[in-house]
Each structure stands twice: as structure tokens, then as C-alpha cells.
Amino acid sequence: MIPTDKQNPNAIVAQFLTKAIEECGKSQITIAKEAGYANANNITMLKSGRSKLNKARVPALARSLEVDETDLMMLVLEQDEPHLADWIKRKTNVNSIGRHAANAFENSLIRAGKVDVELTQEKLKEMQDFFDEFVKGLD
User: Fold this and answer.
1) By CB neighbour count within 10 A (0-12 exposed, 13-18 middle, 19+ buried), where does 14 fall?
2) 80: alpha, beta or left? (left if phi > 0; alpha if psi -120 to 50)
3) Is 46 helix (H, G, I), strand (E, B) or coil?
4) Which of 27, 82, 116, 119 is deepest in the core (most CB within 10 A)?
5) pTM of the full predicted structure?
6) Contact 55/73 with Cβ under 8 angstroms?
7) How far is CA 105 from CA 16, 36, 39, 66, 120, in A?
8) Which fold does the domain 1-87 belong to in CATH?
9) Dihedral of CA 30/34/35/37: which sign?
10) Residue (of 32, 77, 38) closest to 54 by Cα position
């Protein structure tokens, strides 16, 4: 387990990356190559929190891990620049629980091999709205 206290300021992203790496099923060597790192040790350091994820690496790493680029970038910003992350959340719908739920559902279908299921942007938006309304009802 990665410590989440002040001793490891990179813990939030490290925990996310550890889970994403486990779920994607790729080796750290493959991920490192796809994300433009010199070797797999860079990925190990990110997972442990000993190294900070450079924002410029987020798009390639997100593609390699098959995770949402915006979600990963927001985690990096929440960890490194919380004031900027808060501003972005206030100005956009980037942190919508419904959007996260809809993306997670779509990714689950893809991983399960259900690629024949057609999820249009319209259907994903409907799911997002449903989950957002559901969460509002919990308050």
C-alpha cells in the first residue's frame, strides 16, 4: 500500500496508476515504451510515488493504460496544483460523477470483449445524466 500522508505527496496518482496498470494487463516494459519512457523503472517509480508524473506524459500514459486522459490529468492537477484543479472543476463539468460512471461502464464492456455493443456519444451522455441525477438523489 502506498502511504497517503505528507511523506508521499505523489500518493494519489501512484494509487491510480497502480490500479490502472493491474487492470490493463500490459507489462510495465510495454507501458513504458508506449508512454515514451526510457525503461520500466520509470513506471515502477511512478507506482511507488517516488516519482512525479509529468503533465506532458499524461496523454501517452493514459492511452497506454486505456484510461481517460482527462481523469488522469485531473488527478495530477489535484495532487500538484489543487487551486488550478478546483478552478477547472468550477468552470467545467470535468469531474462529473455521471461521466466517470459512464466511462467506467464503457471501459468494462470493452475489457469484457463486448465491442459489438454500440455506445454512441448520445447514449453515453444519457448514462452520464442518469448517474448525475442518481447521485443528486443521494444527498
Assistant:
1) buried
2) alpha
3) helix
4) 119
5) 0.65
6) yes
7) 17, 28, 32, 13, 13
8) 434 Repressor (Amino-terminal Domain) (1.10.260)
9) positive
10) 77
**In the numeric block, which cell numbers belong to residue 54?**
509529468
133 pLDDT above the threshold of 80: no
pLDDT band per the 50, 70, 90 thresholds, residue 9: confident
Dist. CA 79–CA 68, nearest whole Å: 17
Cα 100 to Cα 48: distance, rounded to the nearest angstrom: 25
